[in-house]
Design goal:
Rossmann fold; alpha/beta; ten-stranded mixed β-sheet; 2 domains
Length: 288
């Protein structure tokens, strides 16, 4: 049984993510889906009105409106769940109240899904520089793989998948996840190592890392490529464009705080700027 968590805010992008998972059930019947919708607190609300112990709302009308909103979202989500009921998979739905990123992170910790699938239109400009998107934060911190859907996507259309890495880390968990994707999507896999001026490797060095990774984990039917570009992010996106890839897969280091502000994250940048779906997995040792 594969457990998939789907944050759902009733938006077009969230619907694309949900549709992707429903279509995936035609390829893999042992799926359990959990839809989670987060109702965010209005500016003047607090946990006290819901039994949390903070000061109650000063505006009674806002309290009533907020409670009605929660009940309506529960009904809306339950209706979607009932409409999607199928013998091909099991499905549950829950509405929680709080901050979106925090509640989704808590759901990941408690439910321990095998995969989180969420829709995103990306972030750019000041939004990206100052605060980043919810998707970006989840990619950075989630303990499970995250598949970010950028538009209407059919799992059967994922014929070419790029896995980008420096291939120095011999992580059995990452290798196992990539092999699972190979079986699930029955796609061509391209392992690419991006060469940049700042971290130049000779072709012999880069190929040696690739070949060692493939041999250690007994990968088969893999295309390999050393790709030169001005940065790792641009190299990954350019290579995906060049071969007409349908999905990008990569790991992320999951740095937070000042270290993240100073170094950034290749994986988060790719998620933000890619026009195709991106699969990410946080690993303690990965460089991203």
């Amino acid at each position: 049984m594969i457990h998939i968590l789907i944050p759902y805010d009733f938006s077009k992008m969230a619907t694309h993510a949900l549709d992707f998972v429903i279509k995936l059930s035609s390829q893999y019947s042992k799926l359990h889906l959990t839809l989670i919708h987060v109702v965010e607190y209005p500016l003047n609300t607090s946990m006290g009105t819901l039994g949390g112990g903070m000061d109650p709302l000063s505006d009674y009308q806002n309290q009533v409106y907020f409670r009605d909103l929660i009940e309506q979202k529960k009904l809306d989500l339950e209706r979607i769940k009932d409409n999607l009921s199928s013998s091909s998979y099991s499905i549950e739905a829950q509405v929680v109240v709080g901050v979106i990123f925090r509640e989704i992170s808590q759901a990941i910790e408690e439910l321990k899904p095998d995969l989180l699938v969420m829709g995103s239109s990306g972030a750019s400009g000041w939004d990206e520089f100052l605060i980043g998107s919810t998707t970006e934060k989840i990619v950075r911190t989630a303990i499970c793989p995250v598949l970010t859907i950028k538009g209407e996507t059919d799992p059967l259309s994922l014929r070419k998948i790029v896995f980008a890495s420096n291939f120095k880390e011999m992580d059995v968990g990452v290798a196992s996840r990539i092999k699972t994707m190979q079986l699930l999507f029955d796609s061509e896999f391209y392992f690419v190592s991006v060469n940049t001026p700042g971290e130049f490797k000779t072709s012999r060095e880069a190929n040696a890392s690739l070949e060692k990774f493939i041999a250690k984990f007994k990968f088969e039917n893999i295309h390999t490529q050393i790709y030169n570009s001005i940065s790792e992010e641009s190299g990954i996106l350019e290579f995906a464009d060049d071969i007409g890839a349908d999905l990008i897969a990569m790991t992320t280091h999951g740095r937070t705080g000042i270290l993240h502000l100073l170094t950034g994250s290749i994986a988060e940048d790719v998620v933000n700027h890619s026009k195709r779906p991106v699969w990410t997995l946080k690993t303690p040792s990965s460089k991203a």
